[in-house]
Design goal:
Layout (H helix, E strand, L loop, with lengths): L15 H13 L6 H15 L3 H5 L7 H6 L22 H24 L36 E2 L8 E2 L1 H12 L3 E4 L6 H11 L10 H24 L14 H14 L4 E6 L4 H7 L5 H8 L21 E7 L2 E7 L9 H15 L9 E8 H6 L1 H8 L12 E6 L28 E5 L3 H18 L3 E6 L17 H9 L3 H12 L6 H20 L23 H5 L8 H12 L9 H16 L5 H14 L3 E6 L14 E2 L6 E2 L10 E5 L5 H13 L3 E6 L10 H8 L2 H5 L6 E5 L14 H6 L7 E3 L4 H13 L6 E5 L25 E3 L11 E5 L3 H12 L4 E6 L1 E3 L3 H10 L5 E9 L5 H15 L7 E5 L10 H16 L3 H10 L1
Parallel strand pairs: 4-6, 4-7, 7-8, 8-10, 9-10, 11-14, 11-15, 15-16, 16-18, 17-18, 20-21, 20-23, 23-24
Antiparallel strand pairs: 1-2, 3-9, 5-6, 12-13, 17-22, 19-21
Helix pairs in contact: 1-5, 2-5, 5-6, 8-9, 8-17, 8-18, 9-15, 11-18, 12-23, 20-21, 20-22, 22-27, 23-24, 28-31, 29-30, 31-32
C-alpha cells in the first residue's frame, strides 16, 4: 500500500504505527511495499544512519522518496529501486517510526503552506487589512515544539532539501509563500501544472531576481505611469480620467507580458479592460502617441473629421500598434469598451479565437494571447466573468488560456469588499476552472512583474487561464471629481500619508545600491519634459486616417449612404452548384449509421432537389452556407442547439447511432470552412464572443442563434453597446448575424417574441439591418448578400418556428439560381393586380400566411397582402413604386401578431405615411390591426391565443371575426 496518485491531502490520517508495519514488511521483503515506500524507507535509513547503498546506487531523483511517496508531483518516472534488501545499520523500527512521524508531520506542514500560505502573505500596501498568521501555519500546530524545532528531519528532496530543521523549513516556506506574493494553486488537479509552479516558487534560495538594468527599467516605467497621471490631472483639471494612481506597478508588469511573451512565441496580444488605468495602458503599454491623447482631451477626434461618427469618451477608446522586444515584433490591440465594465471580455476572446484561426494557431495557441484587465469588484460581481472563464476548455471557444490581471483597489466605486462579495478574494471565481492565482502587493513592482512573467510562461506551457490579483489602492475617488472620504474615511486617511509606488521602490533600490539618490528625480524630470513637448505638439495634431478598414478588412468600406445600404447585389448561384450541394446535403456515407427519422428527412430533401420543388427553410439555409463555402468564405454558426436545430430542423451534424461519431456534410465542401457549435448555455457571453470573432474576420459569415428569440434579452448589453452603436462610437464595422426565432404560435410569453420592437428602436444612420423573411429563398439570398457586399453591417433576422415546415413557406429551385436576389418586399402569387387592389395589408413575418389563407378562403379578390421582408433600412422605394400602381386603393392596414406596444407598428407608421405621400395616395393613412397593448408579449393560454389571432386577421381583412376564429380553430 502506498500513496501513488494521491497528494498530501490524504496523509493526515497516516499513523506512525501504520508506517512501522510497512517498514517491517519492507525489511523482510522490499518488494512487498509500493515503490514509493521502498524509495522513502531507503532514503529514511540513509538520513538516520548515514550514507547507504541507496545513496550510492539509486538515481538522484529517487532520493526524493518521501515526497514521491506522498506527493506524485515530486515523483520520478525513471527511478527504480535496486534488487535485494537494504542494510539497516542497526536502526530499530522505533527509530524509523519516530523519524517517519516527524517527516510526515513536516510534509503536512509543507502542504499546509502550499494550500494556505497565501493567507499570511503581505499583500495590502496600506496595511489596513490585518492578516494574522493562521494557526495551522505554525510548527506548534503540527507538534513541533522546543528542541524538535532544531532537529534535522528527512525531507527527501522536497523544497530542494534532503534534510532541514523545522525552524529552517518554516523560514523557507514563509519566504516562498508568505512574502509579497501569495500563490493559490493546490486546487489544480493537474500534476504537471502544480509541479511547474512549485519548482519556480519553492526552495531555500528562491527569490524574485532582476538584473540592475531590469530594476531600473521597472522603476522608469513606474515613474512614467505615475507622472503621466499627474500631468493629465494638472493639464485637464476636473476631467475624468479614471487614473491608475496607486496601481502603477501594472505598467511594467504588462510590459513584461509582451517582452517574455515574445520569447515564448507570442506574436499578437489582444487586450480588454474597463476604465481604471486605460489611458495609462494606451500610452505606456500600447505606445499610443501622447500628442494624440492630449489632442483628444482637448476636444479633438481620434479620426479625420470627414469620417464622422458620434465618438466616445477617451477612457472607452481602443487602439492597435506594434512593439518590438529583442528583435521580435508583437502586434497589440486594445478593444474599445463601454461603461459596462466586463462587457469587453467575451469580445476579446472571440477576436483572439478568430485571429488564431487566421494564423493557423488553433493547435498550439501560442501566437495570439488574450489579456483581460479587471477591477476587483467587477471580477467578483459580474456574471459575464464566469461565462468567459467557462469558455477556457470548450471546443470552438477555447483560446489557449487568458491572462487575467485584477487591479484590486480594495473598493468598488464606494463599496468596500466585505459588502461587495462573499468570498475572501475577488479572484475566487477563477478556481472553478482550476486557474492558478497570484496575489501580489502592488507596492512591489518587482513582485507584480515576476507574477506576470510566471503567468505568461504558465500560459504558454499549459494553455490555460491564469490570474494575477494585484492588491493596490485608488489614490483618488472613483473618478477624480469624487470625494472618497465620504464612504471610506479610514482608508483615505491612510492613502493621503502613503508614499507613491515610485518613492517606495526608489528607496528600496537606493538601499540595494542599484540606483543613486538622483536617479528617480532625473527620470521624472526627463519624462515630464517629454510630456510637455507632446502637449505642445498636440495643438497642431491632425489625424490622417481611420484604421477600421486596414489589414484583413482591406477592400471593404463604408457604404456611401443609407440608400446604398438598401441595395442588393447578385446572390444567385449556378444550377450546377445547386445540384452539387444537393448531393452533399443528402448522401449518407456508407460508414455512417444515421437515425431512421433523419434518413427519412434526407430522402425528402433529395426529392426536393430531384423535383425542383418544395425547398424548406433548413435546405435554403444549407444552400446559402454551402455556396459561400464553395466561394472561399468561412461560415461559423454558434448557439445552444445549433447542430441539430432547436426545432429539429437543421441537422447540420449527423450523429452515428452506433458510435456517436459526428459527420458534418458541409465540412466536405472545398475552399472555405464550416463550423457549427452547440454553445454553452449562455447568451451574453456567447453573443459577445461571436461579435468579437466577426470583428476580427470579415471573411467569415458569423451567426449567433438564440434558442428562442426571447432569450436574446440576456445579451442586451452586447446588442446595445456593440452591435447597434460601436460603428458610430468606435468606427468598428461588423457583419455578425443574429438568428432569433420569432412568431406567435400559442407557446406563451417566453417563446413567442424576439422583441422586434427593441431592435427597430435601435435603428438609425444605417447602423444595422433588421429582417423578417418568409421564404427559404429570401433567407438564402439575404445570408449570401451579407458576405457578397463590399461592406459589413450587423444583420438581425427574425427566424421562423412554424414556418420551418409550413406548406406555403417553400421555394423552388429556380428561386436560388438565374437572376434572383433578395426581395425587400414580397407579394403572394394569388394577389390581385395592383390596379384591382382596394385594400392593402402590409405586414411582416409569419402572420402573412394567416392573412393569405383567410383572404383566399373568403374569396376576397380586392385585398393585396405585401410582406415587408426587410424592416430596416426600410424599403421605401419599391413600396412607393407599388403604391403608385394601386390607383383604386381605398384602405391601407398594418397587421401584426405582436401587441400594439410591441412589434413594428410604431416604427413603420411614419415610414408608411411617407410612402403614401410620395406615391400621391391620399388622404389615406394606415390603420393598425393587431393585439392591443400588453405588458406581456403573449398570452400563455392556447384558446385565448387562437381568439386573438383570429380577431386580428379578421380585423385586417375586414372579415367576420367570429367566422375567422372558427376557421383558425378548425385549422
Amino acid at each position: 500500500m502506498g500513496f501513488e496518485g494521491q497528494d498530501f491531502d490524504d496523509i493526515e490520517g497516516v499513523s506512525p504505527s501504520f508506517v512501522e508495519s510497512l517498514y517491517r514488511q519492507f525489511t523482510a521483503n522490499p518488494n512487498s511495499v509500493a515503490p514509493e515506500w521502498q524509495r522513502w524507507f531507503g532514503g529514511l535509513e540513509g538520513s538516520v544512519a548515514g550514507p547507504s547503498w541507496q545513496r550510492k546506487n539509486w538515481p538522484v531523483a529517487a532520493t526524493d522518496s518521501l515526497t514521491a511517496a506522498l506527493d506524485p508531483t515530486q515523483m520520478s518516472s525513471t527511478a527504480t529501486p535496486p534488487a535485494g534488501k537494504p542494510g539497516k545499520a542497526g536502526i530499530s523500527a522505533a527509530d524509523i517510526e519516530s523519524a517517519a512521524g516527524d517527516s510526515i508531520r513536516a510534509m503536512i506542514l509543507i502542504r499546509t503552506y502550499r494550500v494556505r500560505g497565501h493567507l499570511a502573505a503581505n499583500l495590502d500596501p496600506l496595511g489596513i487589512l490585518k492578516r494574522e498568521l493562521p494557526a495551522d501555519l505554525t510548527p506548534e500546530y503540527h507538534g513541533f515544539t522546543g528542541a524538535a524545532l532544531d532537529k534535522p528531519i528527512y525531507l527527501g528532496g522536497t523544497l530542494g532539501l534532503e534534510t532541514a530543521t523545522v525552524r529552517e523549513l518554516v523560514d523557507i516556506l514563509r519566504a516562498n509563500y508568505c512574502s509579497n506574493v501569495g500563490l493559490e494553486y493546490m486546487h489544480i488537479s493537474d500534476v504537471e501544472e502544480r509541479r511547474f509552479l512549485q519548482e519556480r516558487m519553492e526552495g531555500r534560495d528562491k527569490a524574485i531576481e532582476f538584473t540592475p538594468e531590469g530594476k531600473k527599467a521597472i522603476l522608469s516605467k513606474v515613474i512614467h505611469a505615475e507622472q503621466y497621471e499627474k500631468f493629465l490631472g494638472k493639464k485637464y483639471v476636473g476631467t475624468k480620467r479614471f487614473g491608475l494612481d496607486g496601481g502603477e506597478s501594472m505598467i511594467p508588469a504588462l510590459e513584461s507580458v509582451i517582452k517574455y511573451g515574445s520569447q515564448f512565441g507570442v506574436r499578437e496580444i489582444v487586450y480588454g479592460m474597463a476604465h481604471r488605468g486605460r489611458l495609462n495602458v494606451l500610452a505606456n503599454v500600447m505606445a499610443k502617441g501622447f500628442r494624440v491623447i492630449f489632442h483628444e482631451f482637448s476636444g479633438g477626434t481620434a479620426n479625420p473629421e470627414d469620417v464622422g461618427g458620434s465618438g466616445d469618451v477617451k477612457y472607452h477608446l481602443g487602439t492597435s500598434t506594434d512593439r518590438e522586444f529583442d528583435g521580435i515584433n508583437v502586434h497589440m490591440s486594445l478593444v474599445p469598451n463601454p461603461s459596462h465594465l466586463e462587457t469587453v471580455d467575451p469580445i476579446v476572446l472571440g477576436k483572439v479565437r478568430a485571429q488564431q484561426v487566421i494564423r493557423d494557431d488553433l493547435s498550439q495557441h501560442k501566437e495570439v494571447l488574450p489579456v483581460l484587465i479587471h477591477g476587483d469588484a467587477a471580477f467578483a460581481g459580474q456574471g459575464i466573468v464566469w461565462e468567459c472563464l467557462g469558455f477556457s476548455g470548450i471546443r470552438g471557444y477555447n483560446t489557449g488560456g487568458c491572462i487575467h490581471f485584477i487591479v484590486n483597489n480594495q473598493v468598488g466605486f464606494t463599496t468596500s469588499p466585505q459588502f461587495a462579495r462573499s468570498s475572501p478574494y475577488p479572484s475566487d471565481v477563477a478556481k472553478g476552472v482550476q486557474a492558478p492565482i497570484f496575489h501580489v502587493n502592488g507596492d512591489d513592482p518587482e513582485a507584480v512583474t515576476f507574477a506576470c512573467k510566471m503567468a505568461i510562461e504558465f500560459r504558454q506551457t499549459f494553455h490555460r487561464d491564469i490570474v494575477i490579483d494585484m492588491w493596490c489602492y485608488r489614490r483618488f475617488g472613483h473618478n477624480e471629481g469624487d470625494e472618497p472620504s465620504f464612504t471610506q474615511p479610514l482608508m483615505y486617511k491612510e492613502i493621503r500619508q502613503h508614499p507613491p509606488v515610485s518613492a517606495v521602490y526608489a528607496t528600496r533600490l537606493e538601499q540595494e545600491g542599484v540606483i543613486d539618490e538622483g536617479f528617480a528625480a532625473a527620470a521624472t524630470h526627463e519624462f515630464t519634459q517629454h510630456l510637455e513637448e507632446e502637449f505642445e505638439a498636440a495643438k497642431s495634431y491632425k489625424p490622417n486616417k481611420a484604421d477600421w478598414f486596414a489589414g484583413r478588412w482591406s477592400g471593404l468600406h463604408q457604404p456611401a449612404d443609407i440608400e446604398t445600404a438598401r441595395q442588393n447585389v447578385e446572390t444567385a448561384i449556378e444550377k450546377k452548384l445547386l445540384d452539387s450541394l444537393g448531393r452533399t446535403l443528402t448522401k449518407v456515407p456508407a460508414d455512417v449509421n444515421v437515425h431512421k427519422t433523419l434518413r427519412r428527412i434526407l430522402e425528402q430533401k433529395a426529392a426536393m432537389f430531384s423535383s425542383g420543388e418544395g425547398f424548406d427553410w433548413a435546405t435554403g439555409e444549407a444552400l446559402a452556407f454551402g455556396s459561400l463555402i464553395s466561394e472561399g468564405y468561412n461560415v461559423r454558426l454558434s448557439g445552444q442547439d445549433s447542430g441539430r436545430g432547436t426545432f429539429s430542423q437543421r441537422h447540420s451534424v449527423w450523429v452515428d447511432q452506433d458510435t456517436e461519431a459526428k459527420y458534418i456534410p458541409l465540412t466536405t465542401v472545398p475552399h472555405g470552412k464550416f463550423e457549427v457549435l452547440d454553445s454553452p448555455l449562455s447568451e451574453y457571453g456567447v453573443l459577445g464572443f461571436e461579435y468579437g470573432y466577426a470583428m476580427a474576420d470579415p471573411k467569415t459569415l458569423v451567426l449567433w442563434e438564440a434558442q428562442f428569440g426571447d432569450f436574446a434579452n440576456g445579451a442586451q448589453i452586447v446588442i446595445d453597446q456593440y452591435i447597434a452603436s460601436s460603428e458610430s462610437k468606435w468606427l468598428r464595422a461588423n457583419g455578425l448575424v443574429l438568428l432569433l426565432p420569432h412568431g406567435y404560435e400559442g407557446q406563451g410569453p417566453e417563446h413567442s417574441s424576439a422583441r422586434l420592437e427593441r431592435f427597430l428602436q435601435l435603428c438609425a444612420e444605417g447602423n444595422i439591418q433588421v429582417a423578417n423573411c418568409t421564404t427559404p429563398a429570401n433567407y438564402f439570398h439575404i445570408l449570401r448578400r451579407q458576405m457578397l457586399r463590399s461592406f459589413r453591417k450587423p444583420l438581425i433576422i427574425m427566424t421562423p418556428k412554424s414556418l420551418l415546415r409550413h406548406k406555403m413557406a417553400v421555394s423552388k429551385a429556380e428561386d436560388f439560381i438565374g437572376d434572383k436576389h433578395f426581395m425587400r418586399i414580397l407579394s403572394d402569387i394569388n394577389a390581385p393586380k395592383d390596379e384591382d387592389t382596394k385594400r392593402l395589408v402590409l405586414c411582416t413575418g409569419k402572420v402573412a400566411y394567416d392573412l393569405i389563407e383567410a383572404r383566399d378562403a373568403a374569396g376576397d379578390k380586392n385585398t393585396q397582402i405585401v410582406r415587408i421582408e426587410q424592416l430596416y433600412p426600410f424599403p421605401a422605394e419599391p413600396l412607393i413604386v407599388r403604391l403608385k400602381r394601386m390607383v383604386n386603393l381605398e384602405e391601407v392596414v398594418w397587421a401584426q401578431e405582436e401587441p400594439k406596444n410591441n412589434g413594428a407598428w410604431f416604427f413603420v407608421d411614419s415610414y408608411i405615411e411617407h410612402c403614401l405621400v410620395e406615391a400621391g395616395v391620399g388622404p389615406i393613412r394606415a390603420r393598425y390591426a393587431g393585439r392591443k397593448a400588453s405588458a406581456s408579449p403573449a398570452t400563455g393560454l392556447a384558446k385565448r391565443h387562437i381568439a386573438e389571432q383570429g380577431a386580428l386577421v379578421a380585423d385586417a381583412l375586414g372579415h367576420s371575426v367570429r367566422e375567422e376564429i372558427k376557421r383558425q380553430q378548425k385549422g
